[in-house]
C-alpha cells in the first residue's frame, strides 16, 4: 500500500511539472506564436520604467496619462504582463476626454483606454526625433472611447529632462471603420509628435 501511495504522489508531482505553462520572454519571443496558456512575461521589468502618471502641457492644453502594470493578465489564449491605463485630454481649458479611472483597475486589461506591451529596440516605426537604435521603447494602443472607431499608436521613449523623469511620445490616431465621405475627427489630435510628458 505504501508503494502505491508513493507512486501516486510521484506521478502527481510529475504531472504538475509537465502541466505548467511555458514562460516566454516578451523581449525575445513573439506573442503571436505563444502557445495556449503560456505566460508572455516581462522578465526584465522593462514595463516598470513606464509606470506612473505623466503630464504634457502646452499653454491651457494638456495630456495626462496614467499607466500601471498588470501581471499575468489572461487574454483568452495566453497570460501576459501588460501596461494598462487611461488618459485625460484638455484642449483650450476644456476637458475633451477622461479615461484615467481605467488605471484604477488593471484587471480590465485590453479594455483599458491605453494598453499594450510591445517592446521595441529600433527607430523603424514612429520614432521620436532623438531615437537611438537599441534603446528599449514601447508601442501601446490608445482608444478614443467617445468616437468609437478611432484607435491610435502611442509610442513611448524614456528620458530624463532637467533632472526629471520624462517620456517623449508620438501619437498617431487611425480610424478603423468604413465610412463614406470625410473621416470623423478623433477627440485627440490626429498626430502629436515629440511631446514631452513629465512624471508627476
Helical region count?
A: 1
**Uncertain segments of ≥5 residues (pLDDT<50)?**
9-18
What count of domains describes the coordinates?
Answer: 1
Overall radius of gyration: 21 Å
Beta-strand percentage?
over 45%
Q: Mean of residue pLDDT?
A: 89
Beta strand count: 11
Q: N- to C-terminal separation?
A: 65 Å
Q: Fraction of residues in helices?
A: under 10%
Characterize the overall form.
globular
- Strand line-up in the sheet with most strands: 3-4-5-7-8-9-10-11
- Can you write the helix and strand succession as a string? HEEEEEEEEEEE
What is the SS-derived class? mainly beta
Largest sheet: 8 strands, antiparallel, barrel
Structural account:
This protein has one domain (23-199). The termini are far apart. With 200 residues, it is mostly beta strands. Strands 3-4-5-7-8-9-10-11 form an eight-stranded antiparallel barrel. The chain has one helix spanning 2-19; strands spanning 23-25, 39-41, 52-58, 61-74, 79-91, 94-98, 114-120, 137-143, 150-161, 164-175, 191-199. It contains one helix and eleven strands, in the order αβββββββββββ.
